[in-house]
């Protein structure tokens, strides 16, 4: 058995921070369920945004 190939997504249009996080969450859930392969996504922000991971310390 081999692992599925990686998927690359390069977003052309900037999105809000909330929209980017919603897309990331959807991709993560789909990948966890085996519906899509592991995904590397590059995206742009509409305005400067801070994004912290769930277990990431602020300082």
From TrEMBL:
Q: Which UniProt keywords apply?
A: Ligase
Q: BPL/LPL catalytic domain: which residues?
A: 18-57
Superkingdom of the source? Bacteria
Q: Which GO terms describe its molecular function?
A: ligase activity
A Pfam match: LplA-B_cat
Q: What is this protein called?
A: Lipoate--protein ligase family protein
